[in-house]
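Hello K.,

You asked for the raw outputs rather than the summary table, so here they are, unedited. I folded two proteins back to back in the same session to keep the settings identical. This is the first:
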Amino acid sequence: MTARLLIVGLLTAATGAWGAEQPFGVLDVTLGASYLRLERDLDMRDIDASLAKVPAGGTPDLGRRGYGCMRRDDAFADIACVSHQEKIDGAETREIRLHFLDGRLQQFSLTAELKHYDAVIGYLRARYGAPQAVAPASADSEPSVKWQGEGAQITAYRGKDLVFVNFELASYADAVKRKREGVNYQCG
């Protein structure tokens, strides 16, 4: 009997530890995922190519999930993608914006109308547990909440009209710095 309880306790602890260290993300978008995997899974489209194919008055084909992507020349992303069609537990998002550097999803954000704040935070709380409270930056700003993992963090801000959630790998700042300095790592 004691051995069974010990095994159940160990399995419960292991499950909790796994849940706490799962990659941060929403839906099937996870930090650190490769561009190639998300391009396939999210049915992403090149926005310039899609717009070039649109007849006058038509709408571009942005795939079944509405992600339009384009190359960027700044230090914050090699490729950026945006969708205005995703929903989080039925709550409409205004947009989900993805930033890829070095072929990986390094940072992304989710923006929704303020009326969806509880649904968005509830979704994140259900996946990642209770957040940490973050004091407001100024007297006229709202407090925010965050989830901190070993290799990434999520910060949710409540604004006047919107909820803004930022997902970021801990390595994102270094990746931006490398791109600014023109450093490209090569295999072998």
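The second followed immediately with the same parameters:
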Amino acid sequence: MTLKSGKGRKAGWVLITTIALVAGCSGDIAGEMGRNVQVRERVMGAIASDSVLAGEMATRLLGSDRQRLRVVDKILADDRSAQYVLLRIGQSPTAVDYVLQAAASDSAGREHLAGLFKKMLAAMQAKQNTKQATKK
């Protein structure tokens, strides 16, 4: 059993209390959250402020194709989030491999990749030629 910080325990109790109150008033918590902005804000705030709860919620949101699509679309629609994801992909050789495999999965993607690689090769050769010329 791991002990949470005071803030984490408080967020957990707020969430439990909110769910209990909503469940007592109405058997449908999803419906109550949809109708009552204050309840929705309290529950979402409690989840967002607790890393364990936030992690569990992220796992649930990524658990189905439909929800995963919504999450990814939301991330890509936000410039800062999209840039962060792309940065993380660029730092992971496995993720880069996934991107290249996806890009090469059709003829248009393969053609685009071939053009990019040709440009990269030409730039690397030009750089190497410049280095050799400055050594002479």
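The mean pLDDT is 85.

Happy to rerun anything if the numbers look odd on your end.

Regards,
P.
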